[in-house]
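PROTEIN DATA CARD
Card holder: cysteine dioxygenase
Chain length: 295
Origin: Salix udensis
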Amino acid sequence: MGIETSVANKKVKQVCELAKDKIPNSNLSPKTNTNTKGKKNRRRQHKKMVAVSPVQKLFNTCNEVFDSCSSGIIPSPDDIRKLKAVLDNFKPADVGLVPEMPHFQASVAGKTPVITYLHLHECDKFSMGIFCLPPSGIIPLHNHPGMTVFSKLLFGTMHIKSYDWVADVPASTSAVASPSKTKQPEVRLAKVKVNSKLIAPCETSILYPTDGGNMHCFTAVTACAVLDVLGPPYSDPDGRHCQYYLDFPFDNFSVDGVSIPEEEKEGYAWLEEREKPEDLTVVGELYGGPAIVEK
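Structure generated from the sequence above:
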């Protein structure tokens, strides 16, 4: 999924820093003990017995997979399979989520549902976070420039519609609006990649810089949660800006030299850039699941 969450992230990070300042570090003055050999052996055995949490395993795997990647560079097929295998096994409890949480409660009638973003981690290589959507919550059509994105639906039912650009049809300012339209915006032709419902449990969805449905829209049929991994994350200075779009049926515009057989028209749409929707509200909340140790 991966919509821009910089403001929400900043608020969450500030709260995290305040929390760290209030927690004393009890390991600054380690005690000495003459019987250290036996204790060290027991510690080693204990460490071997302690299982790595799923979210820690996810973090460790992301570190490996995205270590040598950058904008537009796709991880190797083996790395993609490795990360997908970790996400495929994820359950809501692995990140401390239950459907009864306030994030997932239905909105008051007439009000646009508020989406909650739980920040897990972000660095210049990748980001991890969870989008919590109440029923009818919508993440509008948006892109993921130069990114490889893994999305795991943790619970609930969600409708996804995604597109990829038609490579040999550039953006056109000469599009002629149909009689029902008065504006003549710049539009670009895109092909529908997915237009269906996802019902958890299901496999992880993956999109790529130029394939896999790089532009997508999510609509919550029921309350749902999506764990997102983006590599690399959004970054305006690096040219990875989150761009939103409107989509129009193929017959709404006519462009010289572009034609689609009648029976295939439903598989295409014209996309027009737009500003971030005014009714889109994403709030950042502290992640309360198992801790991630950033080694």
